[in-house]
Prior knowledge:
0% of the residues lie in helices and 52% in strands.
Amino acid sequence: xxxxxxxxxxxxxxxGSLTLSCAASPATLxxxxxxxxxxAPGKGREGVGCITNSNxxxxxxxxxxxxxxxxxxxxxxxxxxxxxxxxxxxxxxYYCAADWxxxxxxxxxxxxxxxxxxx
Length: 119
């Protein structure tokens, strides 16, 4: 069982930045890939990005590439989602998830953190 806790969400103006954190326990970043997902009101969940466990390859949703960056600190068992140039359409609940690889339906999920971008 992997326990994931997101933090760092909040309200920000368009063009602003936020950094989300995903703390994993037990120590898991060497074993599992970590994905970031989001779900806006009335919309389905979409994958924002993912970082693999073994070689740290990163994948991004096209609409966030160049604005969002995933990084990880294995010593802290934490994965970060740095979000710059935020737009109102980025407003959603953001979740991190873990699985053996980067897939849409990952095995373990956090509780989510709200990100609201005002215009």
